[in-house]
Amino acid sequence: xxxxxxxxxxxxxxxxxxxxxxxxxxxxxxxxxxxxxxxxxxxxxxxxxxxxxxxxxxxxxxxxxxxxxxxxxxxxxxxxxxxxxxxxxxxxxxxxxxxxxxxxxxxxxxxxxxxxxxxxxxxxxxxxxxxxxxxxxxxxxxxxxxxxxxxxxxxxxxxxxxxxxxxxxxxxxxxxxxxxxxxxxxxxxxxxxxxx
Length: 196
Prior knowledge:
The chain is an alpha+beta fold. Helices cover 64% and strands 9% of the residues.
């Protein structure tokens, strides 16, 4: 009984080469599939995206492990995935053009304070999701945003207007007060000097 337990835990049900090829093929498929699905899938998850990613992980599990449920098979499969990912990341680090092809390029969603709705539509980012991302990064409203960029990794980077609207309003009020003060000083009559 004990020998069967150890055998079931560690004996491979599939050849080692197949155990290594399965995760490599699934890895490649998922990289291409997620790239085609868009940057949004990577970081700007709504409940539907989360369900798809969780289901996707469960769906490809059997394709990765096959009929082999041994610990050895799991370790080989997981190790292969980690090794392939490490190799791909290291390779792409030295090949920026290929990296841009695989990961994509940043996409501008707000330019010069103007929301580019056609870009939001292309990337399937709603105005509410964009607003929530802006709030998470400390922007109270879109009025404060000069530029927003959807990065290849799926995060949205926001850049403030220079200077922020509150500071610009404050500076304008100070300038006007100084101008009014100068005008008032010109209107005041000169003090009379005593004549002897």
